[in-house]
TrEMBL record:
Organism taxonomic ancestry: Bacteria, Bacillati, Actinomycetota, Actinomycetes, Mycobacteriales
Catalytic activities: (S)-lactate + NAD(+) = pyruvate + NADH + H(+)
GO MF annotation: an example: L-lactate dehydrogenase (NAD+) activity
HAMAP family: Lactate_dehydrog
Annotated Lactate/malate dehydrogenase C-terminal domain residues: 149-312
Native species: Corynebacterium yudongzhengii
Pathway: Fermentation; pyruvate fermentation to lactate; (S)-lactate from pyruvate: step 1/1
Name of protein: L-lactate dehydrogenase
Length: 314
């Protein structure tokens, strides 16, 4: 088995999310070669042509090609966006039956090539499907990453930034747990422009109400976007590009992803959204936040929700 040392990415699934991710990668010049696999051959060829025509404006050259599973043999990263789409009014957990079989098929085909890189899973329900890819691949858990709550956290930081009238890069707060209805904000450790969210919420009931409303808008954002445009794509595509850059540049930055818990938060054998240090090896370590009692109860509920579905398959 050959070890992947380059910056080649294979993207499986070129729907709205996959194309948004590909566009972000090309714009940022993060990788040398992006090979894309999709069942719609004509549309894929058109997207590849279109992306290549934009490379001239990118900071560095990315070779974008129509891919096949053979491309996985020397890939550093395989990104999975394939799967059945989330329908209006449908929760992410409703998708699990259809998409688990797709993950099994994809993972087995990738591993059959001798693939020795990392997986990044974005298909929903992402926490459960990432666990499936880990099991089906046989790889060490640090080499299988889910997008987890990277988008939830981005939405939360953006909305808090609007509240404080600062750039979201000046907001340090996380959504953890399921990428879905049982995720929770960790207010106890959140900071915006150097201001503790917990301290301010305890001192000002009006502020506490406002940040709770922001979380509700964060939690429900996907449903509103899907109702209006059919899917979410740009936010998650850019979040995936951020994870990819952290891997390829060995940045050791903390990103909210779906990672396997091995005792953190008092839980084991579950992939779930949590901050984690990301570098070239994948998940270098999980960052366990110090949760208040109520937050721990909410997190435990999120774990139980995922576990109840997951144990139907494993």
């Amino acid at each position: 088995m050959q070890t992947a040392v380059g910056n080649k990415v294979v993207l499986i699934g070129a729907g709205d999310v996959g194309v948004a991710y590909a566009y972000a990668l090309v714009n940022q010049g993060t990788v040398d070669h992006l090979a894309i696999i999709d069942i719609d051959a004509d549309k894929l060829e058109g997207n590849v042509m279109d992306l290549n025509h934009g490379v001239v404006w990118a900071p560095s050259r990315t070779r974008v090609t129509v891919g096949s599973y053979e491309d996985c043999a020397d890939a550093a990263l395989v990104v999975i966006c394939a799967g059945s789409a989330q329908r209006p009014g449908e929760t992410r957990l409703d998708l699990v039956g259809r998409n688990m079989a797709i993950m099994k098929s994809i993972t087995e085909q990738v591993m059959a090539t001798g693939f020795d890189g990392l997986f990044l899973v974005a298909s929903n329900p992402v926490d459960i499907l990432t666990y499936g890819v880990w099991k089906y691949s046989g790889l060490a858990s640090h080499r299988v990453i889910g997008t987890g709550t990277v988008l939830d956290t981005a939405r939360y930081r953006y909305m808090l930034g609007e509240l404080f009238q600062v750039a979201p890069t000046s907001v340090h707060a996380y959504i953890i747990g399921e990428h879905g209805d049982t995720g929770l904000p960790v207010i106890s450790s959140g900071m915006a422009a150097g201001v503790s969210l917990r301290s301010r919420a305890e001192a000002d009931e009006t502020f506490a109400t406002r940040i709770n409303e922001i979380f509700e808008r964060t939690r429900d954002a996907a449903y509103h976007i899907i109702d209006k445009k059919g899917s979410t794509s740009y936010g998650i595509g850019m979040g995936m590009a951020r994870i990819t850059r952290a891997i390829m540049k060995n940045q050791e930055v903390v990103v909210a992803v779906s990672a396997l818990l091995q005792g953190e938060y008092g839980r084991e054998d579950i992939y779930i959204g949590t901050p984690a240090v990301i570098n070239r090896t994948g998940i270098a370590r999980v960052v366990e936040l110090d949760l208040q009692e109520k937050e721990q109860e909410q997190f435990d509920n999120s774990v139980q929700t995922l576990d109840a579905i997951l144990r139907e398959f494993f």
